[in-house]
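User: Can you model how 3,4-dihydroxyphenylalanine sits in this protein?
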Amino acid sequence: MGVLGDLASLRDRVLAELAATTTLEGVEALRVSALGKKGSLTAAFAALRDLPPDDKRAAGQALNTVKVALEEAMAARVQLLKDQALQTQIMAEALDMTLPVTGGGLGRRHPLSRTLDDIVALFARQGFVLHHGPDVEDDEHNFGALNFPPHHPARQMHDTFYVDQTDANGHPMLLRTHTSCVQIHALKEATLPARILAAGRTYRCDSDQTHTPMFHQVEGVVIEDGITMGHLRGCLETFLADFFERDRVDIRFRPSYFPFTEPSAEVDIRCRRNASSIVIGEGEDWLEVLGCGMIHPNVLTACGVDTKRHQGFAFGLGVERLAMLKYGISDLRMFFQNDGRWLRHFGFVG
Ligand code: DAH
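Assistant: Here's the modeled complex, given as structure tokens:
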């Protein structure tokens, strides 16, 4: 019987072609050519019409069996191809977490983190060792031990954030207004001579174009026999030339007042102000960059340092200010807005 005789070879041909098909489009084309409206199997179904009624039933069943077999084989092939495609995709997207990080893969470094690290590294070259203190301080470390008398107006100048709490000795707690307080912790434990550095967040209740409630400072302290303002000047000149990547920078000391240093000075750096930028290290202008002085004997005494044997200098600088000058950042507030475009521009790769 013609229809059925051809049927076995039709099925075998389609199954063989299916096995050789490696794309979903190929399977679909095969389905259309066998089972579609004008497909070969569909034509065989149409041919049933011409069979004598006795043969029709058996032939119809046989055709149906082949049709179901082909449909199942095609569905299985589609599933296999989809599984293979997924597997290939997974392999291609595989992430090996043990591989080393290569340039820029994990976003950018914030210019402040970079500046902080650079400052710490440059002072480390001069022998400074990094110390840490708490962000939430008691007012004795932040003010008292630093020679701010109890009701001295300088305390008000710091626009302090007080915390609704006192420490075990009844001292009010606050968010540290400068990193100078870390020197009290460090000096109480130090073996002298010592070169102490503190870096980190500081807080003042102040917010405008040139102030943010949280900002960063670096504090340096050197206690050594026979230390003078001359050593202080040399230390700062070396640091500032290193930081601004110049052979040398001119600085100038202006007398100033801080309760914890005597004498005290503010340090200006030589610069030129152009229309929209500042060039450091040349020109006829001066720009204030930090405060410093010889540590007040009251501070040393509060830390148990024998002032007959030791003296020292201290300095404090604002990290945002130095970063702005070095990288030409004009608006302080951008540091903390986390604008992705700004970070891509001013951030560092690696
Ligand atoms: N603590 C000062 C401030 O926050 C900065 C400072 C000035 C630190 C002079 C010093 C210093 O050690 O000698 O404004």
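A couple of observations from the model: Residues 147 and 156 are 14 Å apart (CA to CA). The mean pLDDT is 92.
User: Helpful, thanks.
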